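pasting Transmembrane protein for the record, 173 residues
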Amino acid sequence: MQLLLILLVVLGPMVLATSMYKLKFWVPEGRSYHGAMIGNGESRADLGVAGQDERWQLLVSAPQACTEDCQRLVYLARQIQVGLGRDASRASHALAAAQPLSADYQALLGREYPQLQRYPLDAQRYQQKVVEPGPQLWIVDPHGNLVLRYDGKVNGKHVLDDLRHLLKLSNIG
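structre below
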């Protein structure tokens, strides 16, 4: 009887864990991130963005002209980087635009966003990969892999929470 109890205590959790894994029951469905997870190993280059950076990056993609939503995301990306505090040096912000920016907006970016990296965006390649219209905000890891995607109406606090969590878990960048 005691031997049976010992075997049950030792083997019971292993059998339960294996059956939970194999049969996919009792699996938690909660998540700790706010954006759309990009889990298929796509890179910045797959989107049609030629730039590279060895830090975490907040990348704003503008497949059309950079209008209000795009400009809001560029502002938000800078504010999120500043909001990282002591970890701000581990991240950068960038804009990948398919169309040339207006002269006024280019002047504003040069004045107000001196650290903003600017890249050309291959609109045809981008639209093959991304079905959502309008500008998007992406978190890109130091290897150039896309991690999370947010639409133009994202709450900056959610992106900041996600990026802080990624920086906390990551030893790279």
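The chain has a mean pLDDT of 92.
The beta strands are 36-37, 56-62, 91-97, 117-120, 136-140, 146-150.
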